[in-house]
């Protein structure tokens, strides 16, 4: 209990040995026994009732991509101490392939052609999540990642809730305005796709993940923006690495620092801001978070992974 807090999510896999009654549904009970600070013993009972159905279409309709990601993340990260990493990566791919094949077989109309990619409406984000999980440092170590770093990241991710887990495996890539007025304040809802194509050398971008906060600076950012945000007029004199933004009394500096404070309040642990300059050697730290691209440790791009899933799911049905 000492390791649990309000940010923690637990994953439980349940199985049934007898047919389920659709009219009655199912009930899951969890009993929590603990001692209070004063030494009193308490027992708390949680009861959750769920609907059940033998129709796969209804089942797929109620799936949630982020919940499945959190479940698979905890399942695989717990298994890394006992099973080969390659086996875990293949299991993730196999489970997703079989799910897509099942949806294609039982839930799609006969007019769907063999070359057409079909994804359940509520699981369209699942392939990119699973691909990011498969090529994470824990399941696909890079040359520069140590065992200690991987174990630390494993423990940190295992303790995350569902929303933080989703943001960890698909970070928010936020474009920052080069100048600020009332009409173009930074907005976390305007996140871009996590790929290198989203980065413009003339722009500033913030990468927000539960364990990381990166500020990418393009080579062609206007001098006025560099002065307002970093108090320097020269891109080459800007230092990469861990930093703390200067407290400057101008709209751009105030709005960016306010956005960073807001994002920091949404994560369970304290983070340090890293400035990453375009073309700098430390840009690999950013590339690891552009999960739709091929990763530095050799993980497949989202496009390649999705194509492989499609081909494999079609073959299963032949």
UniProtKB/TrEMBL annotation:
Topological relation to the membrane, as annotated: Peripheral membrane protein
Domain Sec23/Sec24 beta-sandwich, first and last residues per copy: 1-52
Main localization, broad class: membrane
Listed Gene3D superfamilies: beta-sandwich domain of Sec23/24 (2.60.40.1670), Sec23/Sec24 helical domain (1.20.120.730), Severin (3.40.20.10)
One Pfam family it belongs to: Sec23_helical
Sequence ranges assigned to domain Sec23/Sec24 helical in this UniProt record: 66-162
Subcellular location as annotated: Endomembrane system
Gene Ontology cellular component annotations, sorted alphabetically: COPII vesicle coat; endoplasmic reticulum exit site
GO biological process, one term: intracellular protein transport
InterPro entries: ADF-H/Gelsolin-like_dom_sf, Beta-sandwich_Sec23_24, Gelsolin-like_dom_sf, Sec23/24_helical_dom, Sec23/24_helical_dom_sf, SEC23_SEC24_subfamily
Record GO terms (molecular function): SNARE binding; zinc ion binding
Protein name (record): Uncharacterized protein
